[in-house]
Specification:
The complex is a heterodimer of chains A (90) and B (143). Chain A is globular. In chain A, a hairpin with a 5-residue loop joins strand 2 and strand 3. Chain A is of the alpha+beta class. The longest helix of chain A is centred in the C-terminal third of the chain and has 13 residues. Chain A is built from 3 helices and 4 strands. In chain B, 35% of the residues are buried. A 4-stranded parallel β-sheet of chain B has the order 2-1-3-4, with helices on both faces. Chain B is α/β, with parallel strands linked by helices and 143 residues long. Classes of the chains: A alpha+beta (90), B alpha/beta (143). At the A-B interface, helix 1 and helix 2 of A face helix 1 and helix 4 of B.
Amino acid sequence: MLEGTVKVINPLGLHARAAAQLVRLAGKFKCQITVERLDGTAFANAKSMLSVLTLAASMNTVLKLTAAGEDESEAFEAVSYLFSNGFGEL
Amino acid sequence: MSMNKVGGVIVSHGQLANELLAAAETVIGDLSHIVAVSIGWHDDVDAAKDEIARAIKNVSQGVGVLLMTDMFGGTPTNISAMFLEDGKVEIVTGVNLPMVIKFATQSEETALSDLAREVEEQGKQSIYRTAALLEPHKMKKDA
């Protein structure tokens, strides 16, 4: 299992289209991928769009990213890159 | 092999159905298994019924069709109710954007009746009084 943090850097936060990108990317991997708020108030399956939206992660929110399963390292790297890339919106 | 999906028809008064579908497509991408039927305020019942029948036929892949209507008791729902058929056509009323997104992102083997229940639940769970979320002690751990 891989664990680390990612930061939302795009101005609109983890909004609907960004969440859709995350879900589309996460769906390509076999491993379980979860994203949660550091204060533990919200937890999401990265493969469920509506789950991701409940994180209500605005710009500068730091989230805990976890990937667990056979392709976890590829998944962790790809999802981390999506966040650091501002979901291609910058 | 690609599995067959449950087809979806959004039925509403005015242009609401078209716009809900357009919004969901903007977020998710092409949704060829969902169509919108917007019933004009002055359309006659037979014309509207024909249009819904055509829509059901267009989206059906043989594993059922879910009609998502705007409001229980309204004409779009009442006309849609004529098409209810066990295992083939189900209706969920009060359609909102999270419901359309839930429907659009269905996992491939979900049966019509299960999907209808999931969409109903999603619609209910997606309504928040947002100010309540800002009161930390009231937030749910697993939303």
